[in-house]
Amino acid sequence: MAPAKKPKPPEPPKRRAADVAYDTLEDLISTLQLQPGSQVVEAELVERTQLGRTPLREALLRMVSTGLIVQQPRRGLLISSIDLADHLDVVQTRRVLECLIARCAARRASEAQRKDIVRCAQRMVRAAAADKLADYMQADIALDRVNHAACQNPSAVKAVLPLIVQCRRFWYAYRHAGDFTEGAAAHLQLAEGIASGSESEAVAGAERLSDYLQGFTERVIAN
C-alpha cells in the first residue's frame, strides 16, 4: 500500500493590489527615492511602479490619512517634509507603542516566531558588521513583520507603522550620524527579550531601541 501523501500547506492569501501599491510607495518614500516635499504625479508613479491607477490612488489616500503624504490647495499631493523638531515627537510616540507591542509579543508569540525574531536581529548584527545597508534594512523590515504578527495587537501595529516609516526615512536622510552597530545591538536586545517570554525584558529592549532612535535624532538636531 502506497504511503499517504502529505497534504499541501495552504497557500497564503493573495494580497490586495492596493496593499502592494502601499508597500511599494512606502519603500520609495522611506528610502528617499521620492524626495520629501516633492509633488506626487500619478502618471509618473504608474509608469515607475507598473501598478494600476486605482490601487495607487487608494494607497495615496491611505498615506494622506497617516501623514506620509499631505494635500495642499492648488498644489495637490506632496510627500511630507522632514521636520527635525517634530521628529522627536514621532520617536517619543513610537516609544510608547513599541513598548506595548514588545510586551504583547513576549506574552503571545509562538515558539517559531520567537526564533524568527532573534534570527532577524542576528542578521542585522551581521549586516552592521559588514557595513551592508541594504541587508541591514531588509532584516529590520523582516524583524518588524515578525514582531507585529507575534504581538496580535492590530490597533497598536496600525498606529506604529507610519511612525516606523518616518523613522526609516529620517535614518536614510541622516545616516551619516547613525551607528549601525548600536542600532543592531538594540534590535537584538529587543528580539531576545521577546523570545525569552519576559515582558519586562522585552520592554527593556524596546526602551533601548527608543533611546537609540532618540539619541540619533538629537545628534542630528545638534549638528
Portion in strands: under 5%
Described by strand count, sense and barrel closure, the largest sheet is: 2 strands, antiparallel
Q: What structural class should be given to the helix and strand makeup?
A: mainly alpha
* Quantity of strands, as a count: 2
What is the third-level CATH name, the topology of the largest domain? Four Helix Bundle (Hemerythrin (Met), subunit A)
The H-and-E topology, N to C, reads as HHHEEHHHHHH
Q: Under the CATH scheme, which class of the largest domain? A: Mainly Alpha
Give a written overview of the molecule.
The protein is mainly alpha-helical. It has helices at residues 17-30, 42-49, 53-66, 84-108, 111-129, 133-151, 154-173, 180-196, 199-222; strands spanning 69-72, 76-79. Helix 4 packs across helix 6, helix 4 (84-108) crosses helix 7 (154-173) and helix 8 (180-196) runs antiparallel to helix 9 (199-222). The mean pLDDT is 90.
List keywords for this structure.
Four Helix Bundle (Hemerythrin (Met), subunit A), single chain, two-stranded antiparallel sheet, mainly alpha, globular, 72% helix, 9 helices, 2 domains, 223 residues, Arc Repressor Mutant, subunit A
